[in-house]
């Protein structure tokens, strides 16, 4: 089964852009979900509640929610944690 990565963020978020840069530089396939797009509201509300955060970027790797402060302190740490989960 191929593991799926989803990034929740918003346009202009420097941390989101930094994380996306890491993913793009290392060929990590991901879906980007704009938290401000009303069509995503239900999904975003669920993921943010599961991640116990209102901060972004929030990352979903299959069913594992990674959120700022709870799962990682830096964007590089978020990227490395994503890579670890993708290789398990």
Which terms summarize this structure?
88 residues, alpha+beta, Glutaredoxin
Q: How is this fold's topology laid out?
A:
Layout (H helix, E strand, L loop, with lengths): L4 E5 L4 H12 L5 E4 L6 H10 L7 E4 L2 E3 L8 H12 L2
Parallel strand pairs: 1-2
Antiparallel strand pairs: 1-3, 3-4
Helix pairs in contact: 1-3
CATH class of the domain at 5-65: Alpha Beta
CATH topology of the domain at 5-65: Glutaredoxin
User: Taking all residues together, what is the mean pLDDT?
Assistant: 95
| Form type | globular
For the record, what is the CATH homologous superfamily label of the domain at 5-65?
Glutaredoxin
Query: Could you describe the largest sheet, including whether it forms a barrel?
Result: 4 strands, mixed
Helix content: 25-40%
Structural class: alpha+beta
Percentage of residues in strands: 15-25%
Spatial order of the strands forming the largest sheet: 2-1-3-4
SSE pattern: EHEHEEH
Q: Overview of this structure, please?
A:
- The chain has about 90 residues and is an alpha+beta fold.
- About 40% of the residues lie in helices and about 20% in strands.
- The chain has a domain at about 5-65: Glutaredoxin (3-Layer(aba) Sandwich).
- The protein has a 4-stranded mixed beta sheet, sandwiched between helices.
- A hairpin with a 2-residue loop joins strand 3 and strand 4 (about 65).
- Helix 1 packs across helix 3 (about 75-85).
Compact overview of the structure:
The protein has 3 helices and 4 strands, in the order E-H-E-H-E-E-H. The protein has 88 residues and is α+β, with helices and mostly antiparallel strands.
């Amino acid at each position: 089964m191929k593991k799926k990565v989803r990034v929740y963020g918003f346009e202009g978020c420097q941390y989101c852009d930094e994380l996306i840069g890491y993913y793009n530089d290392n060929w990590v396939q991901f879906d980007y979900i704009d938290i401000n797009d009303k069509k995503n509201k239900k999904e975003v509300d669920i993921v943010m509640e599961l991640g116990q955060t209102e901060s972004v970027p929030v990352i979903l790797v299959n069913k594992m929610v990674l959120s700022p402060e709870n799962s990682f302190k830096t964007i590089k740490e978020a990227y490395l944690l994503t890579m670890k989960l993708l290789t398990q």
